[in-house]
């Protein structure tokens, strides 16, 4: 078995491992031969996302809530546990804040206890409705602390704070990445995010629901690229603590994304316009120069290719879900 960068076999804890990004990270780490513990409470994830890994001897699954303290012998912790779609995190905002903040504290304590390297999945949402474009890591952000998105934005900002405090005060090897919009197979169909919504609407020839006038922008990163960035950050030297932006700088308006998905699915869907949600960021594009320089990482999967794969995934799901 060959390991990344010549590293030996690791015991890896992936919280939120049954979610969208987490399940792809589990795939990669299991394939690399590491011992993987997938921890999840299934708030927004699903066992089916990792069911194919259950027969591997180096994979185990633990139903657990990161808001509770835990002691496990591990070498690396990827903390991905947190609802990520606005629809999900706004359903239970208190639970969202608790998951980000208490989860980070509990897992940083575990890292301190075991000497594990700790990687926090933060988010581009820490920049809020950014007033600079593209967003670089030195930008402090423009976040409403009391709005409907704040449970997520401020929860993640506080999780970042605790990471750097554990680093300074206890010498824990804590690292932070800021993940920008990511898409791919295993996005939850009902999570209300742009890619899952538009693809499902297009496949059903239903209206494509653009919120606002569609001029707001997002930059979409395919999940395999994102997983590569997470692994590269974990394997980086200890002095690379971040925060490091991970995302694809290829920026599109929401309207362009709707039109592209309609074209790729050859759908008959019409585009309709609805109200823009409160505090919806107008522009989002990562500056990834630190990731390129420090991690030698950059995304490589083009939007049309990634979207075609994702459309293929949703088509297969619909075929399986439809009773014959
Ligand atoms: P997801 O909702 O698919 O996955 C999150 C997982 O965490 C789910 O399996 C959920 O059940 C689990 N979870 C939630 N609360 C938990 C708790 N208290 N204890 C244990 N498990 C819990 O979301 P995702 O898109 O895979 O996002 C993964 C991580 O990446 C999140 O931390 C998110 O904030 C971050 N992120 C994602 C994106 C994106 O575009 N997907 C963008 C920025 C940041
Ligand atoms: N969006 C939209 N229609 C949808 C879902 C989302 O127009 O059916 C817009 C949303 O208002 C936002 C962008 O698409 O401007 C991305 O939304 P998403 O929820 O995927 O992620 P966000 O980046 O807002 O967290």
From TrEMBL:
GO cellular component assignments: cytoplasm
GO molecular function: NAD+ binding; UDP-glucuronate decarboxylase activity
GO biological process, one term: D-xylose metabolic process
CDD domains: UGD_SDR_e (cd05230)
Lineage top rank: taxon: Bacteria
Cofactor section: NAD(+)
Subcellular location: Golgi apparatus membrane; Golgi apparatus, Golgi stack membrane
InterPro entries (UniProt xref): Epimerase_deHydtase (IPR001509), NAD(P)-bd_dom_sf (IPR036291), UXS-like (IPR044516)
Keyword set, alphabetical order: Decarboxylase, Glycoprotein, Golgi apparatus, Lyase, Membrane, NAD, Signal-anchor, Transmembrane, Transmembrane helix
Membrane-topology descriptor: Single-pass type II membrane protein
Record-annotated NAD-dependent epimerase/dehydratase domain positions: 12-247
Pfam families in the record: Epimerase (PF01370)
Main localisation: Golgi
Protein name per Swiss-Prot or TrEMBL: SDR family oxidoreductase
Lineage: Bacteria, Pseudomonadati, Pseudomonadota, Alphaproteobacteria, Sphingomonadales
């Amino acid at each position: 078995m060959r390991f990344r960068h010549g590293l030996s076999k690791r015991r890896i804890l992936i919280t939120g491992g049954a979610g969208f990004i987490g399940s792809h990270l589990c795939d990669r780490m299991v394939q690399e031969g590491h011992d993987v513990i997938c921890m999840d409470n299934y708030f927004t994830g699903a066992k089916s996302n990792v069911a194919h890994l259950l027969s591997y001897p180096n994979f185990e699954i633990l139903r657990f809530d990161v808001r509770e303290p835990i002691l496990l012998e591990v070498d690396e912790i990827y903390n991905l546990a947190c609802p990520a779609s606005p629809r999900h995190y706004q359903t239970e905002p208190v639970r969202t804040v608790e998951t980000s903040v208490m989860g980070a504290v509990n897992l940083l304590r575990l890292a301190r206890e075991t000497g594990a390297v700790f990687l926090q999945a933060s988010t581009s949402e820490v920049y809020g409705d950014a007033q600079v474009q593209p967003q670089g890591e030195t930008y402090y952000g423009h976040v409403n602390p009391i709005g409907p998105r704040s449970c997520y934005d401020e929860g993640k900002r506080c999780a970042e704070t605790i990471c750097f405090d554990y680093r300074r005060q206890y010498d824990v090897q804590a690292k932070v990445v800021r993940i920008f919009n990511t898409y791919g197979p295993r996005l939850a169909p009902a999570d209300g995010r742009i890619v899952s919504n538009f693809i499902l609407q297009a496949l059903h020839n239903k209206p494509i629901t653009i919120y606002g006038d569609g001029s707001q922008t997002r930059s979409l990163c395919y999940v395999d690229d994102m997983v590569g960035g997470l692994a590269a950050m974990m394997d980086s030297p200890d002095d690379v603590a971040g925060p490091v932006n991970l995302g694809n700088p290829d920026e599109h308006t929401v309207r362009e994304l709707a039109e592209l998905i309609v074209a790729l699915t050859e759908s008959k869907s019409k585009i309709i316009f609805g109200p823009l949600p409160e505090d919806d960021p107008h522009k989002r594009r990562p500056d990834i120069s630190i990731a390129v320089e420090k991690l030698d990482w950059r995304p490589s999967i083009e939007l049309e290719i990634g979207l075609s794969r994702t459309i293929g995934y949703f088509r297969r799901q619909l075929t399986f879900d439809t009773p014959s």
